[in-house]
Amino acid sequence: MLFKSVVGQHELKQQLRQTVQEGRIAHAQLFWGAGGYGPLPLALALAQYINCTNRSDDDACGVCPSCHKIQKLIHPDLHFAVPVNSTKEVPEAKKPITDHFFPRWRETLLANPYLNEQEWYETIGIENKQGHIGVNEASRIMEKLHFKSFEADYKMMVIWLPERMNVQAANRLLKLIEEPPTKTLFLLVSEDTTRIIKTILSRTQLVHVPPIDEAVLVAVKTAQDGLPEAQARKLARAAAGSYSRLLALTAIHDDTQEHFAHFVALMRLAYTVDGIALMAWAEELAQTGREHQKAFLLYAAQMLRESFMNNRRVPEVTHLLHDEEAFAGKFAPFVNERNIEAIYQAFNLAIAHLAQNGNAKIIFTDLAMRLAIQIKA
Questions:
Q1: Where are the domains of the chain?
Q2: Engineered SS bond to 69: which of 75, 83, 213, 283, CB 3.0-4.6 Å?
Q3: Residue 109: per-residue pLDDT
Q4: What fold does the segment set 252-374 form as a domain?
């Protein structure tokens, strides 16, 4: 992946290029930040830049044999370790590791380098299980890095979501990460460093990946999709620095009116505390597709933010259009400092349970009842 293909993060890109140009490449680097901010694309861009045979000050060339193979994820010196679990195709008896799933990993990563953990689990069919990086994976990593590089100057091991590594695997890799063979690099990519075993964390150079600038996301939407600036700004604001979230919000844009109707109905029923009607609302939404349900929750979270900003009398940072603005103006007094945190927690809980493939009817009924309690707080 080229640096120019990574959305935003201009200052961080320059820092990474400079470490290569000055020969200060840390042997174990940990890119950490929300997946939508781009830690994985940045790690891939750095890997390509390091091994490019004709790089410039700004980027890899993109056409040399090394670039060509890394861009297609077929370079023999670029390795991956990612969380996996048993499936119908790869039962527990086969001791699942990344190699068993690599064709799907390659296809998924090429299609979307900003993918999140749940999307990966859905791709390999372990939605109801937790992926992990176990001791068998650690042994395979050691095998791969034992030999000299085949073609490139450096051989590289990208470990995606090291927070899913268990203690046994971490202990097995500890010495290797601390003192790897000559010209061997570890590029770890994490969304939550608090869950990484401290002995691993202490042996890496941390590279913090911040949210993408809102102006960059606005420019992306206006240039790529030709959206009016007001609409692009609304989407970028709701994306909160995440490119993957921006894509998800863009995908649901055409369904906005339907989501708006569901949101208005939910808030009005929660205000009147009509339990029977709230259960009917939950059942109706539960009968829609899973992607539609996810899209609604994203939209609702955005509307709550806009309503709260209206309540705080800062309309200059809200981006509502048409009927949304009229409703938010009336609804804003009911989203305030006393209840906004609890309401957000209710929506975040629903999003988490839906991502774990929970029962949609139960999830939306629980959400509706929680809102009925909080809306008049």
A1: 3-208, 252-374
A2: 75
A3: 95
A4: Zinc Finger, Delta Prime; domain 3 (1.20.272)
